[in-house]
Specification:
By secondary structure, the chain is mainly beta. The protein has a domain of 48 residues. A hairpin with a 2-residue loop joins strand 1 and strand 2. The chain is globular, with a radius of gyration of 17 Å. The site of zinc ion has 8 residues, from loops.
Length: 184
């Protein structure tokens, strides 16, 4: 399950298709798009792409995030000038525009800032998972991440619920940070 739903936008740039959403990044349909004959219509390519889950495609900026996630650790960037944590990975601090940045391991704990329950999806891999929760999680360190809430009945999820990170295999060498309820 991935932090996506049918309300997200699909952006096309040449033959590269990238899901753009709330802080969702690096989930790319490039490889699938290239396999579709060039004479196909846009709609036909969309249908073909919808048959497979997107997998992470790390960029030079996000490489550390995905490497650490594969080791079941949540690391995000922090600015050495203003001390702000931020997510998603960037080359400049969004608070002070400084470029003196470092990677820092965070607790993986947070609370649900907002969420929705997805009951329908036009994309086959996600339709199989419905109903599922797409949430914005506010980390203890401040930044917010979009993720699924897993290991929890959808009707138990509430705004403000304490959650912690878990790592979901993506079927390749990567793992995707998701969140589950904190016990106790
Ligand atoms: Zn800064």
């Amino acid at each position: 399950m991935y932090p996506l739903n049918s309300s997200l936008l699909l952006a096309e740039s040449g033959k590269h298709f990238v899901w753009r959403s709330l802080k969702t990044f690096d989930l790319c349909y490039c490889r699938i798009a290239r396999s579709v004959p060039s004479g196909s219509s846009h709609q036909e390519r969309m249908v073909e792409m919808a048959q497979e889950k997107p997998t992470p495609k790390p960029s030079p900026v996000s490489k550390t995030y995905w490497e650490k996630a594969a080791q079941q650790e949540l690391w995000i960037q922090r600015c050495n000038d203003c001390s702000a944590y931020f997510f998603y990975p960037r080359v400049l601090c969004p608070e002070c525009w400084g470029d003196n940045l470092q990677w820092s391991r965070v607790s993986g704990k947070g609370t649900i800032y907002t969420y929705t329950v997805v009951h329908r999806s036009d994309l086959q891999p996600f339709a199989e998972k419905t109903p599922y929760v797409l949430a914005v999680v506010e980390l203890e360190e401040g930044p917010r991440m979009t993720a699924n809430v897993v290991n929890c009945p959808v009707d138990r999820v509430r705004i403000g619920m304490p959650v912690r990170v878990v790592f979901e295999p993506t079927g390749d060498e990567h793992k995707l940070p998701q969140f589950e309820p904190q016990e106790g």
